Amino acid sequence: xxxxxxxxxxxxxxxxxxxxxxxxxxxxxxxxxxxxxxxxxxxxxxxxxxxxxxxxxxxxxxxxxxxxxxxxxxxxxxxxxxxxxxxxxxxxxxxxxxxxxxxxxxxxxxxxxxxxxxxxxxxxxxxxxxxxxxxxxxxxxxxxxxxxxxxxxxxxxxxxxxxxxxxxxxxxxxxxxxxxxxxxxxxxxxxxxxxxxxxxxxxxxxxxxxxxxxxxxxxxxxxxxxxxxxxxxxxxxxxxxxxxxxxxxxxxxxxxxxxxxxxxxxxxxxxxxxxxxxxxxxxxxxxxxxxxxxxxxxxxxxxxxxxxxxxxxxxxxxxxxxxxxxxxxxxxxxxxxxxxxxxxxxxxxxxxxxxxxxxxxxxxxxxxxxxxxxxxxxxxxxxxxxxxxxxxxxxxxxxxxxxxxxxxxxxxxxxxxxxxxxxxxxxxxxxxxxxxxxxxxxxxxxxxxxxxxxxxxxxxxxxxxxxxxxxxxxxxxxxxxxxxxxxxxxxxxxxxxxxxxxxxxxxxxxxxxxxxxxxxxxxxxxxxxxxxxxxxxxxxxxxxxxxxxxxxxxxxx
Length: 557
Fold this sequence. Notes:
By secondary structure, this protein is an alpha+beta fold. It has 16 helices and 21 strands.
């Protein structure tokens, strides 16, 4: 990836004028946070750009993020910001290596695999932040909580291969799930009903909670149980305070099984504009961020107090289609929309050589990526022909993305201009991240989305969750019988070499049917003050802050 370059003042002025054309006051108003998290949390007001303050204890770190988390209920988290906070509060049962994604010990100290039976040993000194032991009963309770249909967890699909797990639309067995067995206080045995290549990787999402605090309680997204507003976990940090739109604050857990982190606490602050994050880093108002505008990286490189890491590309960004609504239920119409947008021009003008044209749903560094894929060509004449053949004349559609992500905002503007050339009026709207997540994952109230709610970086079997017709996480509503069979086959194929041709065919079908237009690789820069060390670069959620518990240092203020 080329070194990031500076965006000129003229470029910034052009972006501002283009935003005014498509958004105006309505786009600014859309930045307001809609609703609250975790049932009873009150909405708060985050700082405006230029009004940042440190106000945290010595020895802590202040991290700027672009979008607010939806929840810290570990049974309901399903997006990057909430997942990272849950990792800090609860720890991961099995941790993926931040660079290779291989399964490594977390709250589970070790595991033994015998065919479909996996026996996990819990860290012998693992306790919750209140000092009580983490036991196999807690692990069993948490797994059953994920799988209980009444919880309606978006992550239930990751554990559904456990023997005895309720089928879709079923009920929880009164005697519990047969495939989860407590062997002794620190050992739990899990039996799978059939092979699952991603099972160990998926155990990263098992954020263990204390059974004693939540037994017979509501674990769903509607829960107002006080636990989810002041949770107790076994992670490296303990919850201090958070209300939606305000700072999320946590302090080091003195009872953490690896020992209390040297960094005494962290503040996770939402600053919903990537350029404002750059200003905050330059001013020393925040200590690091994963979401600073990469087009302003040269400004950050000029600051001797900052270090910049450039992670590899993940899966591409682009356009997510709601395949439930006409005319987007027609794959020819979706393909026409993809063909009508000038991706090469967008890559050249908006990404400034920092990103690249996207190619398929799997990150280019993945073992499962098929490099022989052909991109969807820019061809407005062919796009018009496809629309005409589908009986689609002049139509009006709406497209959303998260406000403050300037690259995604530019993608919407690019799409708006190009689609007008084929008779499609595109109404664009920029809204706050948590609201966008809700529109996509819960209410399904959208037509097109300019964000990456589909595609995989680390584990290719996640395509099953995203596109299998029976998956609750298929946000597009796309269905293809042939693809269903291939997705199931790939998930059960444990040998990578044997799985590669299956994933190649999966990618071919998805590129043909276009439930998502994987158009461009989003460039990231991860930035941190030089006062900190001990981090590991990663393009998993949390980036270099995945290893926050191992970091050292404190800000110079």
